[in-house]
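Sanity check. The docking grid for DAU depends on where the pocket ends up, so I'm generating a full predicted complex first rather than guessing from homology. Inputs follow.
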Amino acid sequence: MILVTGGAGFIGANFVLDWLESSDESVLNIDKLTYAGNLGTLKALEHDARLVFERADICDRAAIDTLLAKHQPRAILHFAAESHVDRSIHGPADFVQTNVVGTFTLLEAARMHWIKLPEEQKQAFRFLHVSTDEVFGSLSSTDPQFAETTPYAPNSPYAATKAASDHLVRAYHHTYGLPVLTTNCSNNYGPYQFPEKLIPLMIANALAGEPLPVYGDGQNVRDWLYVGDHCSAIREVLARGDVGETYNVGGWNEKKNLDVVRTVCDLLDELRPKSSGSYRDQITYVKDRPGHDRRYAIDARKLERALGWTPAETFETGIAKTVQWYLDNQQWVDGVASGEYRKWVETNYAQRA
Ligand code: NAD
Ligand code: DAU
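Predicted complex below; grid placement will be based on this.
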């Protein structure tokens, strides 16, 4: 079986769903179930014997050791993290704990597990670390895209902790020979994303008749990748990636935030028209994110050259599917919009007015 950490989160859960759709290899899902973890996303697999869920913190070495010894996974796919930049600005400690200490703990447990494997299994074992393009810092409008060789320059506490985790993963390969792979991916969007992130937040607010809070001038650029394409890239890297290598994953879809929000509004105007006016009328400009990175852009040619991976979705096809999914799955959104979520909305947006 494979072990997935953070499989109740947005990308991890999409990965588990995709994996079990196309493979009969079992999955052990280890997740702490923070505010971002939601087992409801995996409801369709509730009675599927191929999916084993264990609630555990990746910082808990004893728990991870026990689970590795019991389930003997052939690979670890490490998704678990604190993932939201704004939250890292309000409270960086959890990010250091999970992203740095948690990754370190997992690496140590993996190393001790791996070292004892028979030679053939040892050769085949993989530790795949799921990371982000934010480790590379911010680009100007004329800079070339991030390549795997771009020097690290993380700017937010989130990005700094992900960068630290990437360095630890690299060091465990270089020093101990642990067979690691790292992916650095751009902004994901799609089904089951927690509505604190730009696209699901805008859809939820638009439908609720609330303001659509665009930070700063709305001209910051992100590269957008449909989550299913991220999952297919990870499957390729796991299957055929070269040990010790890092792979950038991107959608070739650089968009300004304001354009993304307007696209969401236009799709909603078409699919769920208001009685009068456009959802665009709800757009408001709010105080910027401190240290807000101006532009991210990914050069994903290495992954294409080495493994033949390209994204299946364009931004236009992916965003249309995504908006339709949120319209069809309002119940899921209502389910995650817990008391804790409402508290976050108050903390983050009250001071931006
Ligand atoms: P998410 O916040 O939606 O989910 C994170 C999951 O990890 C949750 O289920 C949570 O309960 C779990 N978790 C958190 N702390 C844990 C701990 N200490 N022990 C065990 N489980 C814990 O995140 P996501 O958006 O799905 O991102 C997944 C990974 O992909 C992260 O490593 C993130 O850095 C990376 N990434 C995300 C994006 C993006 O656009 N969302 C892009 C590139 C890379
Ligand atoms: O680039 C990959 C990263 O993408 C991942 O590593 C992170 O885990 C993921 O959260 C995401 O980070 P961003 O900060 O880019 O995503 P977010 O959805 O928070 O914001 C996207 C852009 O939209 C960013 O420029 C800030 C802006 N924004 C965001 C929110 C929540 C707004 O203008 N208004 C908002 O209310």
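Relevant for the grid: Residues 2-188+226-254+295-313 form a domain with the Rossmann fold fold (CATH 3.40.50.720).
Also worth noting: The first strand starts at residue 2 and ends at 5.
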